[in-house]
Specification:
The protein is α/β, with parallel strands linked by helices and about 400 residues long. The protein contains ten helices and 16 strands. The chain folds into two domains: about 230 residues, 3-Layer(bba) Sandwich (FAD/NAD(P)-binding domain), CATH 3.50.50; about 140 residues, FAD/NAD(P)-binding domain (3-Layer(bba) Sandwich), CATH 3.50.50.60. The chain has a five-stranded parallel sheet, with helices on one face.
């Protein structure tokens, strides 16, 4: 609960869909709102602007956003938008609303959050802790640092900026930390804007989730157009269909992507090699190129390559939260109570009964919302995030 009735400064970290959902609800409650965004409006989504959502537009916009965008022409509810189309149709118009004038600060990366005069160890679990406002240290693109103060903080910064390591068991492979700048870890427009970077090259793709599925489909388009290209797809599973296939999947776009990737794994062209039960063991410099060492079951194989793409998932950045007394799961790195509620949930469309208590972090008036609250659990939908917010604002 709010410590006093006049403490109504709310800082929202992230100008993505969950950031705006949170900000609108905070404005509805009479809070003074500030949005801090490390990049551009919708920065994380813009990293995969050419990729289509699995879910239709109607599942990705709440009644509150529709109300805020009244007068704007919105896509049809059954439209499957790309990330760029969603930013253009929803997030950019939201950022131009009069109620957000002067409240959105782009290019402000949050470095650290703490209570004024108190670190994590200061007055833990004591009522007086709530009397101290939050201080948020940000860094602008040019390097200038600023301090913002708030009575409530909502972290909606997402996870896309912090990829998982590509090595065995989630550890860095040998050489991965040193040569990390040579690894592509985001869904680039491989067969579009980046075609000439990859055409005719020797490429290793690591991962077998839906991001890797998108990537192998795009890389196969390059293989068709430029047969001198060679791709090795290294997957940890031994399944004939590496990408998880959901029976009777109600999301046709997800079925389309996983089905196409699994068909490539089953019947690869001559310039695509699938290596199952494989892990990235080491990454080495080889003259001006790279050499990868894969652990394949009990043996090792080495390949000279030009490019390595590792799409092995993402994890939340908890470094900026080191001085708040929030509790995170040691397994998922998401909100502790939420991790327990998500245990054994295998599909993002499953109905999850989330109690408001599960969304509290242990630090009063500090909340992690959106996909970051799930940590390394990938089963997040925007619809789930809206349900989170409704529960959170019930207890404020």
């Amino acid at each position: 609960m709010l410590a006093t009735s006049n403490r109504k400064r709310a800082v929202i970290i992230g100008a993505g869909p969950m950031g705006f959902e949170t900000a609108l609800r905070a404005l509805d409650r009479g809070f003074n709102v500030t949005i801090l965004e490390g990049g551009r409006i919708g920065e994380n989504i813009l990293q995969w602007l050419h990729v289509r959502f699995f879910s239709p537009f109607g599942m990705n916009i709440s009644p509150r956003l529709r109300q805020a965008l009244a007068g704007n022409k919105l896509p049809a509810d059954d439209a499957i938008l790309t990330g760029g189309e969603f930013v253009e149709a929803v997030l950019q118009p939201l950022s131009r609303l009069p109620e957000f004038e002067g409240k959105i600060h782009c290019g402000h990366r949050v470095v650290s959050i703490a209570r004024a005069g108190l670190g994590k160890m200061g007055l833990p679990n004591h009522p007086l802790r709530t009397e101290r406002p939050f201080r948020i240290l940000t860094e602008e693109v040019e390097g200038r640092e600023l301090i913002f103060e708030a009575d409530l903080v909502f972290d909606a910064s997402g996870v896309y900026v912090q990829p998982n390591w590509a090595g065995v068991a989630g550890m860095p492979a040998l050489g991965e930390r040193r040569l990390g700048n040579r690894i592509v870890r985001q869904l680039q427009d491989f067969d579009g804007r980046e075609f000439h970077r990859y055409a005719g090259k020797r490429i290793v793709l690591v991962g077998h989730g839906h991001s890797a599925a998108h990537a192998i489909i795009a890389l196969n388009n390059i293989l068709k157009q430029e047969p001198s290209t060679h791709v090795i797809w290294a997957v940890r599973t031994d399944r004939a269909k590496p990408v998880l296939d959901i029976p009777d999947d109600p999301l046709p776009e997800r079925t389309k992507v996983s089905g196409a990737a699994n068909e490539l794994a089953k019947n690869p062209p001559t310039n695509l090699k699938i290596i199952r039960r494989s892990h990235l063991e080491a990454l080495l410099e080889f003259q001006s190129n790279l050499k990868v060492k894969l652990k394949v079951w009990k043996n090792f194989e080495e390949f000279e390559i030009d490019e390595i793409i590792a799409l092995t998932g993402y994890r939340p950045n908890l470094e900026m939260l080191r001085e708040v007394s929030a509790e995170f799961s040691g397994i998922s790195e998401g909100v502790n109570g939420l991790y327990r509620a998500l245990t054994n949930i295998t599909d993002c469309l499953a109905k999850i009964d989330i109690k408001p208590q599960a969304l509290q972090t242990g630090e009063p008036n500090f909340f992690v919302v959106g996909i970051k609250s799930y940590g390394r659990n990938s089963g997040f939908l925007l619809k789930s995030g809206v349900e989170q917010l409704e529960a959170i604002f019930q207890i404020l």
